[in-house]
Amino acid sequence: MLKGFKNFLMRGDVVVVAVGLIVALAFSNLVKAFTDFVINPIIARAQGGNSVGLGWQLGQAGNKSTYLDIGSFISTVIYFIIFMAVVYFLIVEPYKRYSARRGAVVFGDPGPVKTCPACLSEDLPAAAAKCRHCGTDQPPVAGTPRP
C-alpha cells in the first residue's frame, strides 16, 4: 500500500504540479507586492488631493466600510492579469513543451464536434458513431473515417 502511494507521488505529473504550485505562490507574493506598492499609489494619486484612493464615500465621511474603492478593484484586476500571465508563460508553456517531448499532448485544442440530430446535443466528437447522450446512430460527417 505504501509502495503504491510512493509511486503515485513520484510520478512526473505530480512532481511538476507540486513545483508549479510552489512557484505560483512565490510569484503571487511578488505580484501582490507590485500592485500594493506600485499600482495602488499611482491609482490613488490619479484622484488627487488627500483622498484614500480612487473611489467614492457612500456614507459617513471617514468610514472605511462605506467607501467604494474602485482603485483597489482596478489593482486586483491588474494583479489577476499579471499573475495569470506569469502562470501561463512560466508554468503552462514550459509544461506543454516538456510534455510534447515525451509525446503527450496537454492543453491542446479540442477536436471537431457535431450536433446530434435526435437530441440536439452539440458536444459530440465529429467521428462519433453513436450519440453519448441518447444513443442514436450518427450519420458520418464528410471526410471523417467511420470505425
UniProtKB/TrEMBL annotation:
The chain crosses the membrane at residues 70-92. It is a multi-pass membrane protein. Coiled coil: none annotated. Its main location: membrane. SUPFAM superfamilies: Gated mechanosensitive channel. It is found in: Membrane. It comes from the Bacteria. Keywords: Membrane, Transmembrane, Transmembrane helix. It holds the Pfam family MscL. The keyword Transmembrane applies. This is Large-conductance mechanosensitive channel protein MscL.
